[in-house]
Amino acid sequence: MKIADRVEILEIGGNDRLINPVFLWDDHKRILIDAGFPGQVQLFSDAIGSAGFDIKDLTHIIITHQDIDHTGSVLDILKIAPNAKVLSHEKEVPYLQGELPPVKTAALKQTFANMPEEKRVYFERFEAAIKNTKFKIDESLTDGQLFPFGELGIEIIHTPGHTLGHICLYIKESKLLIAGDAIIIEDGNLKVPILTADIPMATISLKKLLPYDIEQVVYYHGGLRRGDINQEIGKITISSR
């Protein structure tokens, strides 16, 4: 779904959840923001094809954070688009490259330990997927960095909390925020995800978004939202104190 000039939401189904990665393009770049669950490479190829492009021409994959539903198909995509560079915030690099274990592993293990046996298999699959989803980061990103794209670039906003190196991305030309998992839409409401490494830090990080002129936002879990986004985000920070 095209939502702005050179911006397309890739609505990717499967795994019982709809996710919303973003595809961007200009005269020189083809950029994918986040890469879904493991085994979704064909869905990405089809979605990018529907936007009029070929997945093999990707130049960059930007990862908002380390969770498996954002990184799962990176390796498979790189097999098709071997020249694509993978980028993330500098604090996510050791996790994505397998030098440190994912920050939420212990919390997930505890969560699934209290579930029926048939549910615990999901954690075992999660652990196996994590072990097989490590990749090299070609370039690390920093807070406030302006990544070249279009006329005005993409601003990197470090929003720690969900993970230590979580980032949002702001495209000034479109007044568009790509929120990753800093916020989700649940039952029509904006929320900080429950499965967040540090909820107080994540809530504080939302205040960094308030100065931006945001007319539309893409939530990875929730999709597109338009309107008075700043006011809605402000309510989250107030209600979470």
SSE layout and pairings?
Layout: E1 2-4, E2 7-9, E3 22-25, E4 30-33, H1 41-50, E5 60-62, H2 68-71, H3 74-80, E6 85-89, H4 93-96, H5 105-113, H6 117-131, E7 139-141, E8 146-147, E9 154-158, E10 167-171, E11 176-180, E12 184-186, E13 189-191, H7 199-206, E14 216-219, E15 223-226, H8 229-239
Parallel strand pairs: 4-5, 5-6, 6-7, 11-14
Antiparallel strand pairs: 1-2, 2-3, 3-4, 8-9, 9-10, 10-11, 12-13, 14-15
Helix pairs in contact: 5-6
Chain-averaged pLDDT: 89
Helix-strand pattern: EEEEHEHHEHHHEEEEEEEHEEH
Task: Give a count of the beta strands, DSSP E runs of length 2 or more.
Answer: 15
Shape: globular
Q: Report the structural category.
A: alpha/beta
Report the end-to-end length measured between terminal Cα atoms. Answer: 35 Å
Uncertain segments of ≥5 residues (pLDDT<50)? Answer: none
Determine Rg (CA atoms, Å). Answer: 17 Å
Mind describing the biggest β-sheet? 7 strands, mixed
Number of helices: 8
Helix fraction?
Answer: 25-40%
- Read across the widest sheet, the strand sequence of neighbours is 1-2-3-4-5-6-7
Strand content: 15-25%
